[in-house]
Each structure stands twice: as C-alpha cells, then as structure tokens.
Amino acid sequence: MSETSETTERPQDQEPGEEGMNTIQRAQMLLDQDNAIAARVESGASPEEAIDSSNKEFGPQAHPEQVQIRVAKRAQMLKDGLEPYPVHLDVTETINQVRDRYEGKLEPGQETEDVVGIAGRVLFLRNGGGLCFVQLSSGDGTRIQGMVSKREIGADSLKRFKQLVDLGDHLYLRGRVVSSKTGELSVFATEWDIAAKALRPMPALHKDLTEEQRTRKPYLAMIADEKARDMVRHRSAAVSSLRRTFDGHDFMEVETPMLQTVHGGAAARPFTTHMNAFDIDLFLRIAPELFLKRCLVGGIERVFEINRDFRNEGADGTHAPEFTMLEAYQAYGTYDTIGDLTKELIQNAAKDAFGSMEVTLLDGQKYDFGGEWKQISMYESLSESLGEEITPETGKDHLRAIADKLGLEEEPAENHGKLVEHLWEHFWQDKLYEPTFVRDFPVETSPLVKAHRTKKGVVEKWDLYVRGFELATGYSELNDPVVQRQRFVEQAKMASQGDVEAMDIDEDFLEALGVGMPPAGGMGMGIDRLLIALTGASIRETITFPLVKPLA
C-alpha cells in the first residue's frame, strides 16, 4: 500500500452499531491486536510477517495494514533494545539555525567539519543501495536534507534505518553539515535515532486536504498545509500585539469567572451546566463585561481580558459556539476614546502580524486598515436608505409595516430597537467594506450602555464593521445603578416574552454599581473575527481546534 495516502476507518467514538462494538470494546480489541503483533515479533517474525493484512482475527474495525506494519516496527525496536519514544536526544541546532548559518555559503559538493544534531519530521524518504536520502521538516515547515550512508554508519545501522524509518516519523540525525553534489544543504549523518515513531501514515502532501480533514484533524492540516501553520503564527502574533498595545496604555490584564450564576454582559443564549459540589445550575460565560466593570469599581481603572466565551447559538462563517473575546474598559473614557484605542489595537495587530496595515487576504485581494476610518449614524443611514426619517420616536407598528413590505421575517419579542437594527442590517450590513464605525444605537437593544449626551432615545454605542461583518463594539458604559436596574427589569420582561437572548437581573452587579463605578469607555472584539478581518479566512480556519459534530 502507498505510504502517502491516509486510510479511512470508523471513528474512535464508535457507538454500538451493526458490528455490536462500543468504544471500550473497540479500544480493547485494538490493544489486543497490538499485543498480538508484538508477540509474533518477539517470537522471531519480521514486521512484515507479524501482521494480518486481511484482519481475519480482529475484523474490519481493526488496524489497517499500514498501521499494523508500523506497530510491528515499534515492537521490533523494543525487541532490539531501541527506544521508539526516547526521553532525550542531543539536539544542538534547529533546522532553521542550520539553514540560517549555511544557506548559500557552500559550493556544490563542499563539506565542513561542523557537527550538528538536528531533529524533524520525515516528509520524504529515498532508500538507495548504500546511500539513503531523507527530508526533515521543523514545526514551521523549514526543511533540510539528511544523508545516511553505509560508509558513515555501517551496514547494520543502515539496514535498520531502511527497515524501521517511515514517512511521518520524527527522526534525529547527528552529522557534518555538507552541500550535496546538486547543491542541497544537508546533514551527513554519523548516527541516527527515531525520536518518535509515527503509527499512522501521513496525508498525501501533494494533495489539498479535505474540509473534513482540516476541521476534524487540524494537526494534519498543520503538518501538510503552510496556510494552516501560518494561521496559528498570525493569531499568536496578533494576540501578542494586542497585549503590547494595552501595556503601552497602562492597562492591566485580569481573569474573570467562566462559570457564572447569572448570565450577562451580552445579548446571547447561554450554555447551562450543573455544579455537583454546590448542587446549583450555572451558565458558561457569554461575556466578561459585568466582572470587568466590578474591577473598575474596585479601582483597577484600565483593565482588559482575553477570554473564552460560549454562546449556544448558530454556527456559520463568522460565528462559533466557543470563541475568544477581548474586552477592555477605561475609566474616564467614552465610546470616542475607546474607539480610538480599538483602531490602534487593530492597526498595530496588522503591522505586527503581517508587517503592514495593508494586508493580503487569502483570495489575493489587498485590504487597507490604515488612514482615518469612516463613521456613520445608524438612524441617519437607515433614514437615507428608506427615503424617510426614522427617529427613536418612530412607532413600532410603522417599523413593522416597513419590515413586512421588505419581506423581513418577524423577530422574537420585537420592539422599536430590534426593528430599527433589523431594518438597518437589511440595507447596510454587508455593504460596509472599508472600516466603518456605526454609531448611536437604540436604547432597547443596549441595556449596558449610557444614554447619548444630546440625542434622546439612543445610546453611545458603536459597532465596527470591516468587509461587511461586525468586528468590534464599543460603549460609553452605563454606571447609574438606578437606570441599570430599570434596564435589567426591561430585559427580564423581554425574556419572559420569549427573547432567549435577553439578560437576567444581576443583583450582585447592581450592588457593585451602587458602590460607585467611574464613567468609562468599554469595547469588545472577537479574536477569531480579528483574524477573519486580517486574513479573509472563515472562522473555522482561524480557530486552531474548532468544535465539530461527532460522526454518527
């Protein structure tokens, strides 16, 4: 069988089915098969002789032939006193370091006396008579050639190399740095060891992985696809940049509870769970907002958190049930000052992760985060689209009539604010390509936001749109405990009328506000969405390990 194709088998979490085998039974069966192969090797069989390619003994759910061969090679190593998973190897240089030091500095055929110890994953293997060639890859995809010869390591060691090393293994080589006759930078091995024996074959590197492989087995994507590795690096660089920008503005990073007795801080449906120790139901965090505001009350006046949030809602190209959120609050700020900070955070992330505020998306298009960003008013832009003035006083019935005329579906627990946003999204949401702050939202949909200083019926809130989707939101934060209680009560009434996204009443938070929270500006931004904006990828591609539905 080819070593470059991935086998297909039933999932590890197999439920009882037509084969009548559950997860534990199958795991035990595979362990029995491993032990049977090892026993045959111990009795003197070669790895090829120790396997049962037809799987007559263990059935169709047992290890496929390629895995059996590798299990047998592992057993052969143990029989010969070789460790297939050694604790330590004398790695003296990374593949990157060797390349940086010698790349382009050796003539074809030139050899040095410089000895290095390197390790990497085997991506290519050519076993000749007395000389074998192997290509090793570091985790970031940097590659180097290894040369293993009978002259340097002896006939017995070369024979073991040919017998035991497979594509996908992690391999250690110690030897001299040379340039091959064709000019390929190489390590001419004087010794070798398997650093970790791979029991499963590699995916075909010359073919694109399927979406199924990418989402269910992202480790394969990281091995085979440079774009997948780049996404992990870009994400790390962007998050590091965010922290540096906050540090430059004297913000403090904190951690807030993931399990909460009252869900709040956003309009979203929560996940519920149960804590046995206290015998109480809890909610998985939908937002850290109410706890971060408690920090403001306690005197931590510039605070941020990068956290995992959970929302029991739909999944699409920009939504995931588990995601990473950034939230930040600045005492004595407003939605204007927090907007300036958000712009700086995003622009710095683009520069630090990609070297420029003009980024190249996956489809090859350029997108510029530089310059001044556009600002529009929700009510004014909606009025412009409808050709009539819409204000906070416009009645719900009139707005519903407009929505019906446009063919928009009715929203649960509709009110003035929800209808205004629903209509606005119909006209504007996917049309805001350049970075745009949409400002001044209806009060009904923004229960944690301070009323506008001059516009009755609206609040000081903006949403930032990039390439047609919402990237971030910012507020002048509500800090009046009496008004906050009123907003919470209105939310609770909406929940009783069927609004599953409405907030609950959080008396502990109201008590904290009563101690006194300074006026503040606050913002929230999805880290996954930031990567969508910077790369043009889908949300699943930006999340290293996306949640997927188990196979039936």
Automatic annotation (TrEMBL):
Provide the cofactor list for this protein: Mg(2+)
Q: Which Pfam families match?
A: tRNA-synt_2, tRNA_anti-codon
**Residue segments, region Disordered:** 1-23, 40-63
Tell me the residue numbers annotated for binding Mg(2+) 2: 470
Question: What detail does the entry give on cofactor binding?
Answer: Binds 3 Mg(2+) ions per subunit.
For the ligand (Mg(2+) 1), the binding residues are 463, 470
Alphabetically list the UniProt keywords.
Answer: Aminoacyl-tRNA synthetase, ATP-binding, Cytoplasm, Ligase, Magnesium, Metal-binding, Nucleotide-binding, Protein biosynthesis
* The EC number(s) this enzyme carries: 6.1.1.6
> NCBIfam families recorded for this chain?
lysS_bact, PRK00484.1
Of which family is this protein a member?
Belongs to the class-II aminoacyl-tRNA synthetase family.
**Name of the protein:** Lysine--tRNA ligase
Which organism encodes this protein? Bifidobacterium [indicum] DSM 20214 = LMG 11587
